[in-house]
Amino acid sequence: MNWGLGHASRCIPLITAMRERGANIYLASDGEAGSLLQREFPAIPFFTLPSYKIRYGRRSALGGLIWRFPGIFNAISREKKAFDGLLEKYPADLIISDNRYGCWSKEAPSALITHQLTLAGHSSIKGIGKKILAHWFSSFDEIWVPDWSGDNALAGKLSKGRFSKPVRYLGILSRMREETGAYDIDILSVISGPEPLRSTFEKQILEQLSQIPGNHMIVRGTETQADLKPPGNIQILDLADSNTLQSYMNRAKFLVTRAGYSTLMDLVQMGKQALIVATPGQPEQEYLADYHKPKKYWLVQDQPDLILDHAIANYTSMVPIRSKKMELGNWLDAIEKILS
User: Fold this and answer.
1) Sheet order of strands, 299-301 included
2) Helix, strand or coil for residue 6?
3) Three-class SS state of 95
4) For 23, 264, 283, 297, which has the most beta carbons within 10 A of its beta carbon?
5) Sign of the CA dihedral 191, 196, 200, 206?
């Protein structure tokens, strides 16, 4: 789903592993998430699906999302129609969908990847949210959760829930790998998320980084051009493929990122220290930031109160998660079981 790059990026290790095992794979998405997949896998056939057109306002992403539920249902109907057309031309033995609720079929086993079994936000929407999720989940044969079960869940209460279909906790998914080497980037900021909030965060980061000595880098997370004028000590890159971003993250002494769940999985996989900043009004990120703040794995700041100088002075007091890593074998076992 093109709600940001995370839903696509976390599928990369799974796609790579299946391809290495000889699977004949087709990819489908839209927007910048689709562009990411095409850059990562230029030899794999790619198809464009109708967009959900998720765009958050500057104040309340939650309110905007509630009002967009009818539009999302319509988008899922368009997606289902387009997906059924693809399956007529390219029959599948297995369908794996990351939060694309129209990508399923009665003709083949269908698994939904999602870490959100409970909606974050005000209690007034949780009841209707549970019913909506149950409706969307019911079309799939299994629900695959990229998290650990129990008290160690990286997503906290978001990844907890019971549904009519089997829910399997398979551990985190990350395209990143920890490497040793020189730390020649002082601060790396990886920006992502829907507009216009992505651009607002980008401007804020650039303004503050310009006042901090050192060798810095910003990965913008978009192909949309902008009239940015960084000083000489800040390098700007629109997008980075997995290997390039992995190299930059390993070389960075400190990271500044959104509090998106896929980003947190990457930080765990690499054992990195970071400042995480939730997208204002986006309930999932706000919950994840609040949930992890007392755990002191990473520094947490609110975007309106962002002070990079303070983060740099205090990040060494944080102790990132190093005891758990991705276990891709769990995911491959799940594929074998659903096909058997």
Assistant:
1) 234-237, 216-219, 185-190, 252-258, 274-277, 299-301
2) helix
3) strand
4) 264
5) positive
Q: What would be the CATH architecture of the domain defined by 185-317? A: 3-Layer(aba) Sandwich (3.40)
Listed by start position, the domains of the chain span 6-172+327-339, 185-317
Residue among 318, 310, 314 at smallest CA distance from 212: 310
Q: How many CB atoms lie within 10 A of CB 55?
A: 12
DSSP secondary structure letters along 30-85: -HHHHHHHHHH-TTS-EEEPPP------SS-HHHHHHHHHHHHHHHHHHHHHHHHH
Decide if 6-172+327-339 and 185-317 have a common fold.
yes
- What is the tens place of the pLDDT at every residue in 69-104? 677 888 899 999 999 999 999 999 999 999 999 999
Pick the CATH number of 6-172+327-339 from 3.30.70.1400, 3.40.50.2000, 3.50.30.10, 3.40.710.10: 3.40.50.2000
Q: How far apart are CA 47 and CA 14, in angstroms?
A: 18
Find the distance separating the first CA and the last CA of the chain, reported in whole Å.
27
Cα–Cα nearest to 268, from 228, 323, 318, 311: 323
Identify the band that residue 3 occupies on the pLDDT scale cut at 50, 70 and 90: low
Distance between CA 165 and CA 143 in Å, rounded?
Answer: 7
Q: What is the DSSP letter of 298?
A: S
